[in-house]
Write a structure and sequence with these properties.
seven-stranded antiparallel β-sheet; Membrane-bound Lytic Murein Transglycosylase D, Chain A; two-stranded antiparallel sheet; alpha+beta; 212 residues; 4 helices; 2 domains; 9 strands
């Protein structure tokens, strides 16, 4: 998935997966970093929670500590502009000694944090920090998939760039022009190489090289 897939316009009313703790309606206070037991993030494309390092988790929590002074997102929208849904925001879960907290983020023209029912514009300095962190997660997810020994199974759309055959070929082979190799290995399931379905499981064959 390309980085710009993360840079989506802001959102309105996404439901978190049932696996999450119910969101508090307000965040009168947040845990300090030394009260946190565990951080995790939800990968919506894989439908699973992944553990977040303490360093990354502390960074996010620190960016939100001054949330009471953030700007309300809805107040920044021009008159007559309806909020747009975000297809796959980041969900971030904090298990602390004083309770459970789940935050959501949408990164677009402005990064928006959802705390309970509040949608807040993240200040520019914190926004840059968060985007760097989110982009590092994208690379981590890509590496987790593409470092598998070939042949392997791949879920279409499960990582950045993995929603077209050329993109998948670029991920696994470093060469988008090798997409016919993947198509040939999956011809029974993929009738039209330009139309592959999100969520379908395909085989990524080992790329055979012809000796000189």
């Amino acid at each position: 998935m390309k980085t710009h897939a993360l840079l989506i316009l802001a959102l309105c009313g996404m439901l978190l997966p049932l696996a999450t703790q119910a969101l508090p309606q307000h965040f009168p206070g947040m845990p300090s970093t030394n009260e946190v037991v565990k951080y995790s993030r939800y990968n919506i494309r894989e439908d699973k929670w992944l553990e977040v390092s303490k360093t990354d988790g502390d960074t996010i929590l620190t960016c939100l500590l001054d949330h009471e002074n953030f700007t309300d997102w809805l107040s920044t929208l021009p008159a007559g502009i309806a909020p747009r849904m975000a297809p796959d925001p980041w969900h971030f879960h904090v298990a602390a000694t004083n309770g459970f907290y789940t935050f959501s983020f949408s990164a677009g023209a402005r990064t928006v944090a959802i705390l309970g029912k509040r949608r807040l514009v993240v200040p520019d300095a914190e926004r840059e920090i968060l985007l760097l962190l989110f982009n590092s997660w994208i690379k981590t997810d890509q590496k987790r998939f593409t470092s598998q020994p070939l042949p392997c199974q791949f879920i279409v759309g499960s990582v950045a760039g993995g929603d077209t055959l050329s993109g998948i070929a670029r991920l696994f082979y470093g060469d988008a022009t090798k997409w016919p190799v993947i198509h040939e290995a999956n011809k029974a399931a993929i009738k039209n190489p330009d139309l592959i379905e999100f969520g379908m499981v395909i085989t990524i064959p080992k790329l055979e090289t012809t000796p000189p």
